[in-house]
Structure formats: C-alpha cells, structure tokens
Amino acid sequence: MSTPLNEHDNASPNSLLDFRRDEIGGGDHIRAILVDDDDDYREAATAELEHFGFEVVPVPSGEAMLDHLERDQSADVIILDWKLQAGLGIDFLPQLHDRGITLPVVFLTGVPTTAYEYAALDGGAVDFVDKARGIPILAKRLRLIVQLSKGPAAPASQETLQCGKLLLRTDIGRAYWDGKDADLTVTEFKIIYLLVSRAGEYVTYRSIYDCVHHAGFVAGSGEEGFRTNVRSSIKRIRNKFRGLDARFSEIENYPAFGYRWHSAPAEAR
User: In principle, which of 78, 126, 137, 261 could form an S-S bond with 199, CB 3.0–4.6 Å?
Assistant: First the structure.
C-alpha cells in the first residue's frame, strides 16, 4: 500500500508542499540515496526532494543500496526506510559500518515509535523522521545534518584542547583518550567539545542538543523530545570511552537538567 507523502496532500497552494527550494534551505546540491521498497512513494519522494535541490539516487532495497555504494560513495546522506520487504532498514547499519561507509543515515518511517527511535539512534543513525511530517521537513533536516557533518563545532583557529587524558583535535574533529582515537562521529565530537569547553559546569539538555542542530529544533515526541536524543548520544559516547578505559567517568549527569565534563581543561594550544 502506498504511503502518502504527508498529511497535506490536498493542501492549498500556500502550503509547505509549495515552498520554493530556497525557502527549504537552498545552497549547495546535496546528494542523497533514498532506500524505500514502495515504488510509488519512492518515485514521489524523489521528485519532491529534487524540487528542493537534492540530487537523489532512488533504490528499492538495502541490498541495492549496498550495491550502489560499492560503485559510488559520493553521496552526502542515506535516507533509509525503517521497514523493508526483506526486513528492517536498521539491519543494514552494521553492513555499512563493516564496509567502512560512514555516511550519515536518516531513518524514514511510517511507524514512529519511541522504541524504534531509540534503536535507530543507538545503532548509529543521526535522525529518525516520521513520513507523516512530509518531505519539506525531511529536506530541512537533511540540509542541517549534511551541513553539520562537514565541519567540527570549534573554531578552526583553535586546533587542540587538552583535558586530562582527553585530547581534542578541533582541526580534524577527532578525540583521543590516553593517545587512542575514541572514534567519535561528528555529532559526538561536537557534544564532547561543548562539555569540555565548559568543564566543571553543567550544560543543559537543550544546549547540548542545540549545538548539533539549531536553537529551537525539536526531535522525538513532544516539546521535550530532544532529551531522548541527548541521552542516547551521551550513552554512545560513554560506551566508546569505556571501550578504551573501563574506569572512564568524566561525564556526569544532573538529573532532569543536563551533563558536565568533570575535569577542568588545560590551556588550549
């Protein structure tokens, strides 16, 4: 059964569906791989994303996505349907990682449950979007994600920040713990940089989320949905550092408020 692009199929000419591409974000072309096994939806979503300035490679399955990426990895982002005929889209995340493919993955779903969102984010996806929100919202989120993935959070003029066993290389967006690369994603690096730059001070959930999206952006269920995303990100970050040092305990939580990096940083170089 086809899934409608959004709840405004019969909207007036002034609806979101009729926004010009510059109103959605404009700028550079973004190359996206769209994976969806619904032929009608895939065709319609591709056409609308192209209207907003995207260059789209539509494929009907996870296997077709992997085949394409074997030949060409020039895409900026992957849009992956949660439920495919051959299983769940999330099952393809480990296969992407095994192939060394680190493109940001955004899940698109008609079943926007909190449990699925947790699983997607814990699996390494960067966003989880309900199809009912519509392609204009998806396009806006994709632009933000791609823009954020192309550079570190810190000013280029400040190249390193030392904090105990942690060394942040802001020029290349890498974090090292006791000389070992923590293998943080761009989003995770931005969060760590924010916490370390304000070490000893609790940073709110909202501030942490805003540093990787934009002020006022809301994800998840309800106005406080961003808290779920922040907790999930902190959990992944902690696990990565604990994989290098089982005694890692630098990130502390103030319940219902936010997180802080415990140790004070040395002078930046």
Answer: 261
